[in-house]
Structure formats: structure tokens, C-alpha cells
Amino acid sequence: MKIRTRIIWSFLLFLIPIIAMGLISSWSLDRIQQNISQETAQNIKILENASKLNSLTQFIRYYDEVLTQSARNYAFTGDKKWNVRYEQNAVLLDNNIKEAIRLGDAEDKQLFNSVNDSNIALVKMEENSMSLTAKGQQQEATASGKFDIIIILGKD
Asked: pLDDT confidence of 148, banded at 50, 70, 90?
């Protein structure tokens, strides 16, 4: 065999495994990239949902405090602007709780359903107090101590 033929064969013996390793590596990297892209999209969706639930939780706390303060101020002052503020924010609180229930997983749904039940009980007490105030019975409305209830949202 001529030297030229030997060199070509030697070159081919080194080149073929290198090409095969390059093709296999390229294929493997493509699969890894696809898996990473899918996992990243799923993780982003999970983070967005958690962020949305966190935001809703903060709004629920805020609207709950607004309702309590509005009912309290209405009962103590008899000023109708507090009743109007109460009515406006009650809808927002209900909407945020319903949205949190809709977006949450099973554990979140259980938590927010519990919050909703507590909210319903608190709203009944506040509306009773505001009804007494509207009837001119401010002393009875404020004497019941209904404004000392605080709902704390949180998950440990």
C-alpha cells in the first residue's frame, strides 16, 4: 500500500469517530435544550401563579382592613361616606377571594375557602352593626365589640 493511501485511511479512521461523536453530541444537546425550554416554561407558569396568589392575598388583607375600618368609622361617626366605601370595597374583596380560589391548588383552595367563610361571618357582623347605625342606634352598633376581629392570611 502506498503511503498516500495509508494516510487517507488513517485520516478517515480518526475523522469518522469524530463526526459520529459530533452528531451524537449535537442530537443530545438539542434534546437537553428542548427539555430545559419545557421545564423553564412550566416553572415560569408556576412562579406567575404563585406571584398572582401572593398579590391576591395582599389585596384580600387590604380590602378586609378597609371593610373593617369603614364599618367601624360608619358606626362611630354615622357618616354615609364610610357606608359607600364599605359597599365599594366589599365587591373587590369578594372578587379577590373568588379569584384566589380559582387559581389556587388544592391546599390554596382550602385556605381561601376558609378565608371566604370567615369573611362571610365578619361581613354579617359588620352589616348588622351598620344597619343599627343606619337606624340611629350607634351606641348599640359600637357596643358589641365586633370591630376587634382581624383575619390574618398566611400559610406556614
From this structure: very low
Q: Are 100 and 57 in contact (CB under 8 A)?
A: yes
Is 101 within a domain?
Answer: yes
Residue 20 confidence (pLDDT) above 50: yes
CATH number at residue 7: 1.20.120
How many angstroms separate the Cα of 135 from the Cα of each of 38, 76, 90?
61, 13, 21
Average pLDDT over residues 34-60: 91
The domain in which residue 61 lies consists of 3-148
Report yes or no: 82 and 71 within 8 Å, Cβ to Cβ.
Answer: yes
Q: Are 75 and 142 in contact (CB under 8 A)?
A: yes
Rounded to whole angstroms, how far apart are CA atoms 86 and 142? 16
- Tell me which residue has cell 359600637: 142
Contact 93, 35 (CB under 8 A): no
Share above pLDDT 70 across residues of the chain, in percent, rounded to a whole number? 92
Beta-carbon count within 10 A of 155 CB: 8
What three-state secondary structure class fits 61?
helix
Domain count, the chain: 1
Answer yes or no: is pLDDT of 49 > 50: yes
pTM score: 0.67
With respect to residue 156, please indicate whether it lies within any of the assigned structural domains.
Answer: no
